[in-house]
Amino acid sequence: MIKVHDLHKSFGGIQAVNGATLEIKTGSITGLIGPNGAGKTTLFNVIAGLYTPTSGTVHLDGEDITGLQPHQLFGKGLLRTFQLAHEFSTLTVRENLMMVPPNQPGESLMDTWLRPAKVREHEEIVRAKADEVIRFLEIEHVADELAGNLSGGQKKLIELGRTMMVDAKIVFLDEVGAGVNRTLLGKIGDAILRLNQERNYTFCLIEHDMDFVSRLCDPVICMAEGAVLAQGTADEVKNNEAVIESYLGTGLKNKESKA
Question: Which superkingdom does the taxonomy of this entry point to (predicted)?
Answer without folding.
Answer: Bacteria
